Amino acid sequence: QVQLVESGGGVVQAGGSLRLSCTASGGTFGATTMYWYRQAPGKQRELVASITSGGTISYEEPAKGRFTISRDNAKNTMSLQMNSLKLEDTGVYYCGVRRLVTPVYRYWGRGTQVTVSS
Fold this sequence. Notes:
It contains no helices and eleven strands. With about 120 residues, the chain is mainly beta. The radius of gyration is 14 Å and the shape is globular. It starts with a strand and ends with a strand.
């Protein structure tokens, strides 16, 4: 059973920085894509950024230029460095992993709260 555990959330003032981490265990993590999603109060969960095991990175528009996603395949960890945080970055941030070759799977972590205050 794959498990994902997020950490690093907290309360930060607008303009500040936070670094989120996701630790994966219990599975085979080669040939996977890992994701950061977030969900703001009253809104749907949205993609923030993704990174493949080969290192291909993609950012959604709100994250471009401010967030940096990284991954350590040897340690089965993923991080999201968030700089220049804005009030609208507030939400629960979720780590996800998807594997499209056998064994196929998709899992989510339980999330970590990020609150950006004025």
